């Protein structure tokens, strides 16, 4: 059992982490919560059945084992720095900080405090992405040389997915970025629940070169979430022996004459009368890989599993000394790519050396 102190009380704390922590109450207990808004903080504290504290110093007096930090983007840099300075293990929401240089400062502070800092980059932690990574690591696709991302996660989220296919150690060497804006047809846009008359679409594109003759392409638009015009969100990767398009995986047959599908079996079991993911198994002529859900005894959907995995990564590092799965160093790379794309776009797509 580890104790958590929570910094923040917004929608993500109440709508995402709250239900997860209630479900994982046998592993985590929330000893307190603080946020800048007393009213909202007390409301969130009541929902989590914990105490509200006026500030971070007061929260630390409750002796949490871990600080979970999820605040507004504008407050991210200041609050993250304050949290890491406590020396407590921290789980920071993405992007950890708004600039790569600020993340470097967090890294320096964490090193000085000898504290653990994980970053909740959930996109590569989703169950199907875990299985893909496991298959790539097993070598069934051979070396993966190229990857693309069509609208699956903006900026750092999208770059994290691409790098998960090419391998986390793969170093980006250059990036080209473009930003285009153009009008599209009027339509209903679901996130804002509004009809949009003659809206403009902002499109970001990047090409990234990596060491070892590898490359990736990134696309994201302002209509990626909730617009019927941009209905497909998927990723691809291309290896020596096969490829993936979304969750459709294929390998070349032994004669080199055609591709054969990799069948994904989703094993389900019952937890308290609810269906819960137990494992994902990839089959060709034989089983190729099996990813076991580490939360199979809890009722969590795939997205909640991904978020809980980020917290579990920090817990395992704290309790058992295992390496963090993502951490500040990886967050810095993805934020660095975001900055490189924007810098290149501002200069007409000029090549930016990384």
How many independent structural domains?
Answer: 2
How are strands sequenced across the largest beta sheet? 18-17-16-15-14-13-7-12-11-8-19
Structural class: alpha/beta
Looking at the overall shape, the CATH architecture of the largest domain is 2-Layer Sandwich
Strand composition percent = 25-35%
Q: What is the arithmetic mean of pLDDT?
A: 94
Instruction: Assign a percent range to the helix content.
Output: 25-40%
Poorly predicted tracts of residues: none
Would you report the number of β strands?
19
CATH hierarchy, class of the largest domain: Alpha Beta
Q: Which series of helices and strands comes N to C?
A: EHEHEHEHEHEHEHEEEEEEEEEEEHHE
Number of helices: 9
Biggest sheet statistics: 11 strands, mixed
Oligomer: single chain
Radius of gyration: 21 Å
For the record, give the distance between the C-alpha atoms at the N and C termini, rounded to a whole number.
Answer: 42 Å
Fill in the CATH topology of the largest domain. Dihydrodipicolinate Reductase, domain 2
């Amino acid at each position: 059992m580890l104790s958590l102190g929570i910094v923040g009380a917004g929608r993500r704390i109440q709508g995402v982490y709250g239900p997860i922590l209630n479900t994982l109450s046998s592993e985590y207990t929330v000893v307190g919560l603080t946020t800048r808004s007393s009213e909202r903080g007390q409301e969130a504290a009541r929902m989590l059945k914990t105490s509200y504290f006026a500030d971070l110093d007061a929260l630390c007096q409750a002796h949490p084992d871990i600080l979970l930090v999820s605040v507004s983007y504008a407050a991210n840099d200041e609050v993250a720095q304050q949290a890491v300075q406590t020396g407590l293990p921290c789980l920071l929401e993405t992007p950890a900080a708004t600039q790569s240089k600020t993340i470097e400062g967090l890294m320096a502070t964490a090193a000085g405090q000898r504290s653990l800092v994980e970053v909740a980059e959930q996109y590569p932690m989703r169950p199907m992405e875990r299985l893909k990574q496991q298959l790539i690591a097993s070598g069934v696709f051979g070396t993966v040389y190229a990857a693309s991302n069509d609208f699956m996660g903006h900026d750092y989220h999208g770059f994290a997915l691409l790098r998960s296919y090419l391998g986390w150690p793969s170093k980006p060497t250059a990036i080209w970025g473009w930003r285009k804006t153009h009008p599209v047809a009027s339509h209903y846009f679901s996130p804002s629940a509004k009809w949009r008359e003659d809206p403009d679409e902002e499109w970001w594109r990047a090409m990234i070169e990596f060491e070892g003759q590898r490359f990736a392409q990134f696309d994201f638009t302002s209509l990626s979430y909730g617009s019927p015009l941009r209905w497909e969100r998927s990723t691809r990767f291309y290896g020596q022996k096969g490829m993936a398009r979304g969750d459709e995986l294929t390998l070349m047959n032994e004669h080199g004459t055609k591709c054969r599908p990799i069948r994904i079996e989703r094993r389900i079991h019952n937890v308290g009368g609810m269906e819960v993911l137990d494992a994902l198994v990839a089959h060709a002529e034989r089983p190729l890989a099996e990813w076991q859900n580490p939360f199979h005894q809890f009722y969590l959907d795939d997205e909640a599993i991904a978020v809980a995995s980020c917290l579990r990564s920090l817990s395992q590092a704290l309790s058992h000394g295992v390496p963090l799965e993502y951490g500040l160093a990886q967050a810095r790379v993805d934020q660095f790519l975001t900055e490189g794309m924007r810098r290149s776009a501002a200069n007409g797509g000029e090549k930016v050396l990384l």
